[in-house]
Amino acid sequence: MNAPLIWIFFPFLVGAFSLLFISQERWAAIVSSVTALILTLAALVVPIDQALGFGSFSLKISSSFQILGRNLTLDSSHAPLLTILYGVAALWFIGAESVGVARRLSSMGLIMLSLLVASIAVQPFLFAALLIEISVLVAVPLLSPPDQTPSRGVLHFLIYQTLGMPFILIAGWLSAGVEASPGDLTLTIQSTLMLGLGFAFLLAVFPLYNWMPLLIEEGSPYIVGFLFWILPTVASIFGLSFLDRYGWLRGSPQVMAALRVAGLLMVVTGGLWSAFQRHIGRMLAFMSVAETGFILLALSLNPATGVPIVFLMLIPRGLGLAICALSLSVLNSHTGSLRFSSVQGLARAYPFVTAGLILSALSTAGFPLLAGFPPRLALWNSLGGGSLTDSFWFMVGILGLATGAIRALAVMVMAGENTSWVSQESWSQRAMLGGGILALFILGLFPQALSPILDKLPLMFQHLGH
Amino acid sequence: MITSIVSWTVVAGLLITSAGLLLYRDWRWGLGFLAGQYLGVFWLVYQHWPLGMAAAKLVTGWMAAASIGMTLLNLPDRPESDEKYWTQGRIFRIFMIGMAALLAIAVAPRLESVLPGIGIPVSMGGVLLVAMGLIQLGMTSQILRVILGLLTALSGFEILYAAMEGSILVAALLVVINLGLGLTGAYLLISSPEEPSA
Question: Which of A313, A322, A286, A316 is nearest to A105 (CA)?
Fold first, then answer.
């Protein structure tokens, strides 16, 4: 028995089985969420590379699996990340049933997740770009069901994500050369440019994020939200692997400055576009853009400060996006459009949805008491210590996000005086949104609750974690 | 010497097939050019990889082309549209093909200095296909053309990357990606009944 079999091949097979043989929404959601929960629990309690004794019987889960001459390795340092990925994925799968996308999301989402975990496990880490690309290909039928004409957003998504892979692979090859001859300035510039372009495509860095609002306008908000969560999260871990592996990248002030500028551009543009939207789905897209900007900003800090902030963002980001996407999907299924004109005054008919939508948006904006507040505060504090200008632009982005949330709230409560408060959400939707909102507050009030998992996350990295 | 002559002939062939992909409208011609292009890719990859691994590229490329072709065969033929635009666009396309060829000629010797031993025909073929693929992607939003553009750009990258990395796992994953792109294209074409026939 070994860890990659459990956390990569098993969910892949369950996903494939679910895709081929399970036709009922409820059963698809149950199978995938139970699988994800079991894998979360296993990551929490099952030791890797240590013997487990059951009376006279002992079992050891080894960390490596050899495939075509290379290794997939998931050791005990990966356990916290596996816990987060499968745990948050379980939330997404549970919620999928209440918006009628469980069959598609559960099966293909599980396959995607297993491929993305494989991208974290593959050695050398550089080959992760190939596995991420394969998961992008799996995402295409997820985004575009057979009975729906493929949208421009899907094509742009496919093009941009595919173009990122070659740049990253070539950058990895060049980076090894830079490591061998650190004085070669030309090679260093070429490698940095390639890497920058690769991650710009992969993380949808400004201005390459036009597919994000397109996707959410034309597709299921819940499925698109899942992609907005999983792809940037894993791509960020992949980016951290680059910083960890190549000392010249970590030590380069130019690379850090580029990350800072890209991050600020994303936070500011994401915030401002969000403030001026008249479509709440597009707001989610720009919230996600800003979230990626926050991650880039954290990466631009000194690793000892920035890396824990990146990890502190992972769970609030996943939770906030899940609540927002669920709220949007419920609204979309009732109104058929997420334009302001269509959702105006719906707060009284959909109070849980409205609360979920607004609170998750405010959490992204770093509103106090909500899950997004502790990482934003830590990030802003660290930025302010270095540059007031950066801190000012960060504030502009945050204000934009908060303005977008307040505008959405204003539109949704704009109902006639005689409209009564009658919740039209189903019980399952109310339970999930209510639970999610509660979790947003709990994580905002007690961020230390996550420290048993988050404290061990940096150990995945040889240099960044020590 | 003979290898070098064959390689240069292959580069010329790649110029013809990739230009054909940009200029010809009929999907049958397009897939024919794509299949021919993979022959060239096979030869250039074979300069750095063993025969078996290089042949895998050829077979995968043909399988991707076949999957798209089978799909299109089963879809009803649709009338060509926007002929006027197409005629005007053809001159621009020929100009862009010229630019891509010039770019490949200019960049290939420089690549030789970054990747010693890659060989100028290999680097020229790789850069040419990447450029042609990107031009294709920049000029259309039609599903078939986007997929052909991605496959072309990826083929160019694979030619270059073969000189850098010889891992079997990489070869296998690239095979999956090529085949996946072909199948994704077929899936999207089926889902898009009103898509013009390229």
Answer: A322
Two structure tokens written together for B152 = 């072309």
Q: Residue B178: its chain A contacts at CB < 8 A?
A: none
Q: Which two tokens stand for residue A427?
A: 């019980």
| B2 CA: distance to closest CA in chain A (Å) | 30
Q: Which residues pair with A67 in a beta bridge?
A: A70
Q: Distance between CA A351 and CA A424 in Å, rounded?
A: 9
- H-type helices in A276-350, by residue range? 280-299, 303-335, 340-343
Question: Where in chain A are the domains?
Answer: 1-123, 124-460
CA angle at residue A171 from A169 to A176, to 5 degrees? Answer: 100
Contact A111, A16 (CB under 8 A): yes
In the chain, the amino acid numbered A192 is T
The B-side interface with A (CB below 8 A) comprises 114, 130, 137, 141, 143, 146, 150, 153-154, 157, 160-161, 164-165, 167-170, 172-174, 176-177, 180-181, 184, 187-188, 190-194
Beta bridge partners of A53: A58
| Tens digit of each residue's pLDDT, chain A (466 residues) | 889 999 999 999 999 999 999 988 899 999 999 999 999 999 998 888 888 777 778 888 898 998 888 889 999 999 999 999 999 999 999 999 888 899 989 999 999 999 999 999 998 888 999 999 999 999 999 999 888 888 889 999 999 999 999 999 999 888 888 888 877 888 888 889 999 999 999 999 988 888 999 999 888 999 999 999 999 999 999 999 988 888 888 888 999 999 999 999 999 999 999 999 999 999 999 999 999 999 999 999 988 889 999 999 999 999 999 999 999 999 999 888 899 999 999 999 999 999 999 999 999 999 999 999 999 999 999 998 888 999 999 999 999 999 999 999 999 998 877 888 888 899 999 999 999 999 999 999 998 888 888 888 888 888 876 6
Contact of B122 with B44, CB cutoff 8 Å? yes
How many Å apart are CA A111 and CA A102, to the nearest integer? 14
Q: What are phi and psi of A60, to 5 degrees?
A: -125, 130
